[in-house]
Amino acid sequence: MIWDWSFTFEILPVLAHAAIVSIEATLIGFVLAATLGLVLAVVRIAVPRTGWTISVLVELIRSTPLLIQIFFIYFVFPKFGLVLDAFTAGVLAIGIHYAAYCSEVYRAGFDNIHRGQWEASIALNLSAWTTFRDIIIPQAIPPIVPALGNYLVALFKETPLLSAIAVMELMQTAKIIGSETFRYTEPITLVGLFFLAMSLVSAVLIRALERLLNRRTMR
Amino acid sequence: MGIRTLVAMLAAALVVIAILATQPSYSLFMPGLLQGAALTVEIAVLGALLAVVMGVLAALARLYGPAPLRWLATVYVEIFRGTSALVQLFWLFFVLPQFGVSLDAFPVAVLALGLNVGAYGSEVVRGAILSVNRGQWEGCTALNMSRGQMLRRVILPQAFVAMIPPWGNLFIELLKSTSLVSLITLSDLAFKAQQMNQNTFKTIPIFTLVLLMYLAMSLVLTIVMRLLERRASAGLARGRAA
């Protein structure tokens, strides 16, 4: 028997519980990525002569595999006295990795703001902070929300990597069920279906959001 | 980032690797890591070939295939883009044998990564074909070309130029995802790093070298794709300006 339904229903609650950990990791990781990415993009504009350093940093992070970065934070940071548990280390690595990608998205958003907006802010004697908070960011963020949404989905699909440092998320749970029962078909297929469902749903949501934002900016 | 900066970064990375390799605490790990890196490159190259083939086939099937083929290609693309690469890798490695198809870790790695990146690539190919000016199709029709001739002689050569930068990004993604194959027992660069780390606990030298090696490989890939892009678009720029 290739597919066992009773076994499927037996492991479903266990996997559902693990799915919560995956979603938690996704949300915390994304908040971290979105915030840190914004900080990188703002510093690049606001602080002179940081552009090159940040470009190189972003390139470094984007050119190396996330898996190695997870290992690096989990295994190397303790040598400098910073011991993190697996979940924290993994989420931190994911957050930093995607911050590099997000910072480029923000940069594109900022580049699309008309020069006149900056000049008008200077003419009105607004501080750099006020300019960013009240003028630039409200105009720059809405057009890039879909791009950020795509990275949220991409980030979600990378959370199985956390299984490599034994975080009890979906993949790790499926692997453990597999090794205990010698039945891999159901757990791994279910994990795949779960990701597929989440991705398709979020694709629809992102498209709806895109339409909504387009309508708003059209007015 | 300009190509000069990229070349400078590559040179810097290589120099740092070379300097570290002369240190006794680092040189110890070099042979094993280089062996791992060779496997990484091998998987990345084969995976890239498969990805390009799958990407082009799936895109053509979705654009011009008969309904069943179009449907099949769409399912392929949605499944491989909708689930994560690691799940696909594990599925092919652990679940496929239950259906009587037992593959070694190496073919599974190439297959999973190639199919995964191919699914993303098909969207790139499809977008590039659709971005070719309508007038080109109409010109072909006016010249009484068959559909195969249109694609082969007129549309694809122009679409090719638009495809290079996104394919470059996908190849980088592919190179980075090869690190996942360490989780299905292949001794690539990431696997060697893990193994040496467990044996020696010399975490800092090992992971520093590994990061630098991946960086160097990615930079080589980025630079090659940039040069290719420059070459491919050189001839076309004149025609487009008109």
Descriptive tags:
heterodimer; A: 219 residues; mainly alpha; MetI-like fold; 8 helices; 0% strand; B: 242 residues; 10 helices
What does the secondary structure layout of this molecule look like, with pairings?
The complex is a heterodimer of chains A (219) and B (242).
Chain A: H1 5-46, H2 51-63, H3 66-76, H4 86-111, H5 115-123, H6 128-158, H7 170-181, H8 185-218
Helix pairs in contact in A: 1-4, 1-6, 1-7, 1-8, 2-4, 3-4, 4-6, 6-8, 7-8
Chain B: H1 3-22, H2 24-27, H3 30-64, H4 67-82, H5 85-95, H6 105-130, H7 134-142, H8 147-177, H9 189-200, H10 203-241
Helix pairs in contact in B: 1-10, 3-4, 3-6, 3-9, 3-10, 4-6, 5-6, 6-8, 8-10, 9-10
Could you please describe the fold and organization of this structure?
The complex is a heterodimer of chains A (219) and B (242). In chain A, 81% of the residues lie in helices and 0% in strands. Chain A has a domain at 17-169: MetI-like (MetI-like fold), CATH 1.10.3720.10. Chain A has helices at residues 5-46, 51-63, 66-76, 86-111, 115-123, 128-158, 170-181, 185-218. Chain A is built from 8 helices and no strands. The mean pLDDT of chain A is 91. In chain A, helix 4 (86-111) crosses helix 6 and helix 7 packs antiparallel against helix 8 (185-218). With 219 residues, chain A is mainly α. Chain B is mainly α. Chain B has a domain at 41-186: Orthogonal Bundle (MetI-like fold), CATH 1.10.3720. Chain B is 84% helix and 0% strand. Chain B is built from 10 helices and no strands. Chain B has helices at residues 3-22, 24-27, 30-64, 67-82, 85-95, 105-130, 134-142, 147-177, 189-200, 203-241. In chain B, helix 5 (85-95) packs across helix 6 (105-130). Chain B is flat, with a radius of gyration of 21 Å. The two termini of chain B are 29 Å apart.
